[in-house]
Amino acid sequence: MSIRTQLHRIRKDTRQADVFAANVWHAWSAVSASGSGVSWETAFKTFAEALAAASAGDTIKVRGEFNESGLEIEELHIIGQDVSNNHYRTLFYSDEATPIFIIKGNNVTIEKLGIAQQAAQLVIQIGDASGQAWYKLKLADLKIDGWGTANGGIGYGHATVDAPDIHIENCLFRSIAGTHIVSNATRGRYNDNILLISASQVGIDHQPDASSRPDTIIAHNRIIGANSGDTGIKITNTPDAGKLIAYDNHIFNCATTITQKATNVAVQMNYTNDGAGGTLIDPIA
Prior knowledge:
- By secondary structure, the protein is mainly beta.
- It has a single domain, classed as Pectate Lyase C-like (3 Solenoid).
- 8% of the residues lie in helices and 39% in strands.
- The chain has a 17-stranded parallel sheet that branches. A nine-stranded parallel sheet has the order 4-7-9-11-14-17-20-23-26, with no helix packed on it.
């Protein structure tokens, strides 16, 4: 095959790849009117418009403040960007009676956002009543504020929803009137989060409903409580196979630090300053 023929094939293959290349969309609440969404100068004014334009595998970059909720995310990457590169200045907020984000697809990334839920709903809901499992979700660098009214931080739309290989990292939770993170996943990873939990609430609740959901790791989290009926890490259920590992978590001022089911659980090198003066691990039958 001649060099000329090889170059022709390379150009042809490149053009074909471009047809199927993922798109990058832009949503910026500060623009005066919506454009095509292909750049910041032509950004959509609402996130819903960008969501309607996007296809599986696309990226949506966002700036500004969006009073929107019930946003169903399927196979998309949502990334907050700001002129000052301060990702907490990109904010989603709502007082509508629905979660702000509802994940209903595989390969979803949501990162570098502030999210404020002002209604008695989850902030981010994974799945729905169908019980469909969704794979490879990443939620990172989020500042989640429940305004004292949100009844959960990141949770599930149904008790049987699995989220294999979910990764929640480097998020800040505050003022959640419920469980901050619910773990019901195969090979879940929950690490390097800061949870400021209120009285009678739970930081991370590991509650897999099926024995075939092993190998979750809860590590390097910082959990600060109100020392009034609160629990740092609650282990409601454990897998029959594989391990749950709770490692190097720092838990401060929680009435209960870690509740533990005895089967297939490794709780190692966690640190506590328990305001109630209790032990690190409080076994439950």
